[in-house]
Amino acid sequence: MFLLPHLGTIIWVSIVFIIVYFILSKFAWKPLMKALEEREQSVESSLFAASEAEKKLRNLKVEQDSIITAAKHEKEQVLKEGTDQREKIIAAAKEKAVAEAEKIVNDARKKIAQEREAALVDMKNQIATLSIEIATKVVHGDMEDKKRHEKLVEELIKDIELN
Q1: Fewer CB near the terminus (10 Å): N or C of the chain?
Q2: DSSP letters for 31-83
Q3: What is the rounded CA–CA span in Å between residue 137 and residue 135?
Q4: What span, in angstroms and rounded, lies between the C-alpha atoms of 55 and 136?
Q5: Alpha-carbon distance 80 to 36, whole Å?
Q6: Nearest residue to 15 via CA among 61, 7, 36
Q7: pLDDT 10s digit of each residue in the chain, 163 long?
């Protein structure tokens, strides 16, 4: 039960196959091969371009990392300089405040000394005036009477104690 094709069918199929093979090899095989080669070259160039892009990306990543590191160092340096300037400004302000406080204290001491001297001079003048008044009254009282003299001295003592 094998199916055997007829000899005529085999010949015609073979002839048609040879004609189709010849036509395809003549007209379609070269363009198909050319298209396959172009596709292969396109894939290879795409792979090469992807490889180059990956290399560039790695280089950019390295460059980016170095830029970030440099920026961090610069930031730290700027912060350090700012801190140093702040410390200098604070120190200068403290020095200025201390100098001004010393000046105020010295001025106050000078003023107190001047006022004390003025008070002493005024007190001396008042004592001198009182002494002259007492001497005048004593001399007046001495001239008149001894009892009056004692009475006058007692009054003057009381008067001085009241002042």
Answers
A1: N
A2: HHHHHHHHHHHHHHHHHHHHHHHHHHHHHHHHHHHHHHHHHHHHHHHHHHHHH
A3: 5
A4: 120
A5: 65
A6: 7
A7: 466 778 888 899 999 999 998 988 888 888 888 889 999 999 999 999 999 999 999 999 999 999 999 999 999 999 999 999 999 999 999 999 999 999 999 999 999 999 999 998 888 888 878 877 877 776 665 556 667 767 777 777 777 766 5
Pair of tokens at residue 131: 């002494």
- Alpha-carbon distance of 50 to 43, in angstroms, equals 10
Three-class DSSP category at 126: helix
Question: Which pair of tokens denotes residue 1?
Answer: 């039960």
29-144 vs 146-162: helix crossing angle, rounded to 10: 170
Tokens 């172009």 found at: 38
Instruction: Count other Cβ atoms within 10 Å, centred on residue 162.
Output: 6
How many residues in the chain?
163
